[in-house]
Design a protein that fits this description.
The protein is mainly alpha-helical and 86 residues long. The protein has one domain (4-71). Helices cover 49% and strands 0% of the residues. It has helices spanning 4-12, 16-23, 34-52, 60-65.
Length: 86
């Protein structure tokens, strides 16, 4: 049995087979159980905690990117500029 969390994770990661299947479902019929959202959020927060402790396989900025948050990289030679992202 495939868990809802696994399916939604594949969709969020852009896995073509899952995205194509989801695209066939009318938007008004698409729904996700709240427990699935909670599981995904808890998992992503765990990855952030691991990245902060240098125990993750991804960088801290990549961990935050799992939430869709763009993190400006900091060059130690200069101050980050807000407008660098644009």
């Amino acid at each position: 049995m495939i868990a809802f969390t696994d399916v939604l994770t594949e969709i969020l990661l852009g896995e073509p087979l899952f995205v194509a299947r989801a695209a066939t479902i009318p938007p008004h019929e698409q729904a996700v159980p709240v427990i699935v959202i909670e599981e995904i959020m808890r998992g992503r927060l765990q990855v952030i905690r691991q990245a902060e402790a240098d125990q993750a396989r991804i960088s801290l900025s990549d961990a935050y990117n799992l939430f869709g948050i763009h993190i400006l990289s900091h060059d130690s030679g200069r101050e980050p500029d807000f407008f660098d992202a644009y």
